[in-house]
Structure formats: C-alpha cells, structure tokens
Design goal:
heterodimer, A: about 290 residues, 14 helices, B: about 350 residues, globular
Chain lengths: ~290, ~350
C-alpha cells in the first residue's frame, strides 16, 4: 500500500538532488557506512566466530578464523536437536500463520463489508487487543493452557499466538477490503455471486498483497516468539529455535564457538525468508503502522 | 486474472436497474463515517441495508465466530482472569481461595522492586525518545537521497529487526562477556578506559540493554522514516531552496512538520515497546544484577513462574496493562488525533 505510493514519490524527487552540496553527499555516504558497519559487524562476528575454536576465541575474541574450524557447524548440523527445533518452529509458525490469516481475513471481511449493529464496537474490541501484550496475559494463558491440557503441544503455542496476532491482521486488512469498490461487488451480485462467493472468488484475490503482508507479519511473529514457547514447553524435544538457542547458551556457556555456530545457523532461516520477502516485509511494516 | 475479466465483463453488462437493485449491498460496502455528517437520503438507504436477512446473519456468524472464539478465549479471558487472580493470594495450584482484595496492588505499589521495574521501563522509553529518535531520524535524513547500493543498505540495516530477540540476546551476551569481543574491540582502538562489566554493573546494565535494543530496532525506524520522507514532495524542498532557505532551515520548517505523523507513530510504538520489554532482558540478565535491569514484564514472570506468586504477579501484570492502556489513550487523545488514521479509532473511510 504505502510502498507503491512512496516508490512513485521517490522517482519524482530525482531533480531535488542537484541542490545537494558535495559535503552532504560525503556525510550521506559516511552515514550509510556507519549504519552498515554497526549492523553488519556483530552479525559477521557471530558467523565467523562459529568457524573458530574456543582456544582461538579466548586468545583473541575478535580475530579472523585461523585456521578455519568447521567442526562447530558440522557438529550442530549433525545433531538431531537442531533439526528438531527447526521442525518445531516451522510447524508452529505455519499453523499460527494459517490460523491468523484465515480467521483474520474472514473477520475483516465481515467487519468491512457487512453493516450490522455493534460492528464498530466489535472492531474497536479487536483493535484494543493491540494493547494486550503477551506479557500481561502470560500467567493466565499458561493456566488456561494447563487446564486445556495443551502444555507441551504445538497447539498450545500456535493458538494463543494466532489469537494475539488477530488484532493487527484485522486492523491491516479491514481498510484494504473496504477500499475495494462497491461496484465490483454489485457486478458480482448481478452475475449471481453470493456474498460468500464474492469473498472467496473476488475479494481474497484482490486483497492478495495485503494478505501476504499480514501472513509475513504473523509468520515472523510466531517464528521469533520466545515467551510463549518458554511457558508452554518444558521438554527440550518440543523446543523451538529461539528457545533452543537461549537454552544452549545457558547450558554450554563455556563453549563460545559452539554458541556462535548455533546462533548463526538459527539466524539463517529468518534471514533467508527476509531476503526472499524483503519488499513485502518492509512495505508491510511501514504500511501497517501508517494504517 | 480470470476474476478481473469476469467482473470487468459483468460491469459493462450490468444494467442501470441491476446496479440500483443491489444498491443496499453497495451501501453496505461503505461503512458509516460520522453519522451526523451525512445527507438524510444516504442514511435512510443505510437503514434498509442494516436489516439483515437470515442468510446474512448466518454468513456473519460463520465469518466472525472462529476469530471471536479464539480472541475471546485467549486474549479477553486472559485479561479478565489476570484481573480476577490479582485479588487473591495464590500460588497457582488448586483453585484460588484466599481473597485479599487490593492487597496485591498496594503491596506492588509500595514494593521497591516493582517501583524499580516501572522506573526502568520509563527510563527506557525516555531514552528512546531522547537518544534513539534524533539518531534514527538524523540517519534517515542523511540516507534520504541517491546512494550507491541503497537497496543493499536498506536490507542490511533492517536485518537485526528480523532476527528474534532471543537470538539477538544470545549473540550480544557472547560479545559483551568480560574480555569478549566488545572489550577487545575497544582496546584495539585505544579506548581501554571504556571497558566495563557491561551486564554486571548495576549502574550500567540498563544502558547496555538499551544499546542492544537500539541495534535491533534502529533499522526499523530508519525504514519507517525513509518511507515517510518519500512522501515529502521534492517541489517543496526546491521552492524553499529557491527562496534562499538553507538545508537546515528546509529540514526544520518543511520536512520535519510533514514527517509529523510518522514521528508520532514511531514514538507510540517505541514507548509501548519500552513498556513491554521482556525477552532481551530476560535472556541477557534475568532482570539482574539485583533487579537493576528488571522490567515490569520480567517481574511478572519472575514472581509468577519462579516464585509461584500468581496472585501478586497478576496484579503486576494488570498494572503493566493499565500503564500501557492509559498511555495509549492519552497519546491517542492528544497526539494521534491530529492524524487522520489512528488504529484505535480506526474507522474506515
């Protein structure tokens, strides 16, 4: 949404550049260098640290791998727990994402294109949910999950995650769905399309970009979640990747090289996903907060 | 593609009467704005649209029920339960029976640990606005222009935001350990005097955490402001420059006011984030040493899950929510109101 307009605007700002002084160009490149350096150096440290031995790291924490040690990475890639964490994270994130997007889209459709009493109140209720942090709810959610016998289960994480993901999904999708012209709906109705048929066959495809955005937000939210899995899982075989990394760190705190290799490998899926969906993620973030 | 063709074809085929026959559903699609501001005719038409057919009721139930069940069960019931538990002295096992009224609240408000946690949250929020905002905004202003490798820059700056807080915390834990990468980095550039016990020093730990949080979230702010800056028309800057304004004047008088809504949203997200700070702190320090980095959220978990004080922990959680809620309401009322689209008042128009 916001992305398309901003890109057009940036093209038209081209002539403005002539007004810049050489000094500001230098400052700009310096700032760029600074941002990249500050961001990238810690990431490089983690990745390269995984290729060093603990002895190398203890002797000089910031040095270059010499010689390159591959055993940290091969050890973790060869361990079943890393793959299990990855698998658990994937299953939970996919379940939570599907639930959030499907239920959120249905609710957003009802709240944007049906007129009924209490509609705005209901919408406000969902929107106020944006202010309920998981931190506030953690104790009761834990007790509820215990009563429902959902501790140590994927659903115990995915369902609350989806519930807390619904507000932002609905807040993003509703204006998007409302903006689709009524004429299209009229035309579909003339052609004999029911309202549910319109939702399924026309509105969802038209809302595709917004759906992708909320799906990415939901996926990242669940994939990166730590607090909920921490409360729900006690058995290490159920751990997700963030939980696994933090636990590995506290259990093997002397094995710095191993921790760095584990951390670097755990970053990979999110980074790969990010490179793959970069435009949508950035557009989604800026679009979502702009409302 | 096929759907577009289909609707395109049907639109041309739709007769005038056809369009007016479905007039009711069309008004449905236009949600009400301010009710009083509408012409009477439109309002009457909406009235008829509001009488839902049995079929529409079923559709609504079908569409809304699943989301509502999930939302009510986990979000609303949880909040209500937190409020309920907060009136009991309860260890989380068996039913809560020992009703203590507001004792947990008065205890929390008088508890130096809670006061400290609240103060840390507020310090974090203030630091964000005083330090992070100028830094982020300044960098965004500098980066707003043609730069070689702009896309790569954007990608790299944004990367930490995509990583989980747990992974960020672990990476920085390793770098910040005594004699670790940060210390060696400082020594190698001759700043030996700056080397500290970054996470063990009670006076320093909160600032250390703030730096890590800044590392993680600054890219998000930069991207947000860059998007906002692209909405500032170049013509306005040029006009100001032609009138003899310096670049500083142009930035202050033209660019920043137009960036107002983005800045206000950034502040909102940043303060709420500061109030709810948990994972970074929990993994890096557990709120220590001696509570010097505890936040309200880490205090809730500490009391609830480490000391089994579920009633007291719930009271702290409710207070945390109250602080967020009051801030959101006041902010909505006094700051966001100027912007057309606030998420909470979020009517669609």
């Amino acid at each position: 949404m916001a992305l398309t307009t901003s890109r057009r605007a940036s093209a038209s700002s081209a002539p403005g550049r002539d007004l810049r002084t050489p000094f500001s160009t230098a400052a700009r490149h310096l700032a760029a260098l600074l941002v990249v350096g500050v961001t990238a150096v810690p990431l490089l440290f983690v990745v390269l640290g995984g290729f060093r031995s603990n002895a190398q790291i203890n002797a000089s924490p910031t040095g270059w791998p010499h010689p390159w040690v591959f055993s940290n990475y091969t050890r973790i890639l060869g361990s079943s727990s890393f793959w299990r964490f990855l698998f658990n994270s994937t299953v939970i994130a996919v379940t939570a994402t599907v639930l959030t997007v499907v239920l959120g889209a249905m609710a957003a459709y009802a709240l944007s294109r049906y007129v009924f009493r209490g509609r705005e109140g209901l919408y406000t209720l969902f929107a106020v949910g944006l202010l309920f942090p998981l931190g506030v709810a953690s104790l009761p959610v834990y007790l509820l999950l215990r009563q429902l016998h959902m501790l140590e289960s994927w659903y115990g994480v995915a369902l609350p995650q989806a519930a807390f993901g619904l507000p932002v999904t609905i807040v993003v999708l509703r204006p998007f769905m409302a903006a689709i012209p009524g004429e299209i709906e009229d035309a579909a109705a003339v052609d004999g399309c029911t309202r549910l048929g319109f939702f399924w066959r026309i509105l969802l495809p038209l809302a595709g970009p917004a759906l992708v955005t909320v799906a990415i937000l939901a996926f990242l939210g669940s994939w990166n979640g730590y607090q909920l899995p921490m409360l729900v899982f006690n058995d290490q075989s159920h751990f997700t990747l963030p939980l696994g990394v933090a636990t590995f760190q506290s259990q093997y705190s002397q094995d710095t090289a191993g921790i760095l290799a584990f951390t670097a490998l755990s970053m990979l899926p999110a980074l790969a996903f990010f490179v793959f969906a970069e435009r949508r993620i950035i557009g989604g973030m800026t679009g979502a907060v702009k409302g | 593609m096929t759907t577009l063709d289909r609707t395109g074809a049907s639109r041309t085929g739709a007769s005038r009467t056809g369009a007016s026959r479905t007039g009711a559903s069309r008004t449905d699609a236009r949600p009400p704005g301010a009710p009083g501001a509408e012409p009477a005719g439109r309002t009457r038409r909406r009235r008829t649209g509001r009488r839902l057919s049995v079929r529409s009721r079923w559709e609504l139930a079908l569409l809304l029920t699943p989301a509502l069940v999930l939302f009510v069960l986990f979000v609303l019931v949880s909040i209500a339960a937190a409020v309920y538990y907060s009136f009991f002295d309860w260890n989380g096992f068996g039913p809560p029976t020992k009703l203590v009224g507001f004792a947990n609240y008065t205890k929390a408000l008088a508890d130096p640990m809670f006061q400290g946690a609240l103060r840390h949250n507020i310090q974090f929020a203030v630091l964000s606005i005083v330090v992070q905002l100028p830094l982020t905004l300044g960098l965004a202003l500098l980066l707003n222009g043609r730069i070689r490798g702009r896309a790569a820059l954007r990608l790299i700056a944004f990367t930490p935001y995509v990583l989980s807080e747990a992974i960020t915390a672990v990476a920085w834990l390793v770098m910040l350990q005594p004699g670790g990468a940060v210390d060696e980095g400082l020594r190698s550039v001759g700043l030996d005097g700056l080397v500290h016990e970054w996470l063990a020093d009670q006076d320093l730990v909160l600032y250390t955490l703030f730096v890590v949080a800044t590392w993680k979230y600054i890219g998000f702010g930069i991207i947000l402001f860059l998007a906002g800056l692209q909405g500032v028309p170049a013509e306005l800057r040029e006009a100001a420059a032609l009138d003899g304004a310096t670049q500083w004047q142009t930035t202050r008088k033209v660019v920043l006011p137009l960036l107002g809504p983005t800045i206000r949203i950034w502040i909102f997200l940043s303060v709420i984030g500061s109030l709810q700070l948990f994972e970074l702190v929990w993994i890096m320090t557990l709120g220590g040493p001696a509570g010097s980095s505890a936040t309200m959220a880490t205090y809730v978990i500490d009391r609830g899950f480490r000391r089994y004080q579920f009633g007291y922990g719930s009271a702290v959680a409710v207070l945390l929510f109250a602080v967020c809620f009051v801030f959101a309401l006041l902010y909505q009322r006094f700051a966001l109101r100027r912007d057309s689209a606030g998420a909470l008042s979020g009517r669609v128009d």
